[in-house]
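Hey, I'm writing a tutorial for new members on how sequence and structure tokens pair up, and I'd like a real worked example in the thread rather than a made-up one. If someone can provide the structure for the chain below, I'll link this post from the tutorial.
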Amino acid sequence: MLSIWVTGMVTGLGLIVAIGAQNAFVLRQGLRREHIGVVVALCIVSDALLILGGTAGIGALVSRFPAVLEILRWAGAAYLAWWGIRSLISAAKPSVLEAQAPRAKGTVILTTLALTFLNPHVYLDTVVLLGSLANHYGSDTRWIFAAGAVVGSVLWFTALGYGARSLSTVLNRPRTWQIVDLLIGVVMLVLAVRLVAG
């Protein structure tokens, strides 16, 4: 049982640790020390719901209706392109954290949800892939695998968000923010292009 749980955790971590739109946003919010608890909690709850939904069999439903993923692909690509351009504009005029106006909690929540649920790769990774892998263990132990994957998500988002928050005072320099914004902008635009390219 423990080996199935560890396998689920390692597999979950392997899928979410790669730099993507959601991780870049969590990193940025952590560095800004802004609503990080809400962002981390939303990411964890969203991942947990998607992983458990995939384990319950929603992955088969998503696979039967590819039009849903197609709509998400185009909406996600547009959103990522907008976010990437916005980050590149910020990189052109670097500032320190205190110089930036704080964002409203509602805006941060909507952005977190958009970066999570408008990305079709989230569904493919959590619902379809993790759900399929969990179901290979059979009805008795699939939930142990899923629980491991959820714990991996909890560990990752907590470490990323609060780790970045801990480093924010050290990294609060205009040049650092220019690099962060530039990297986030490039990542978002590359992800947008990859979504459009299929």
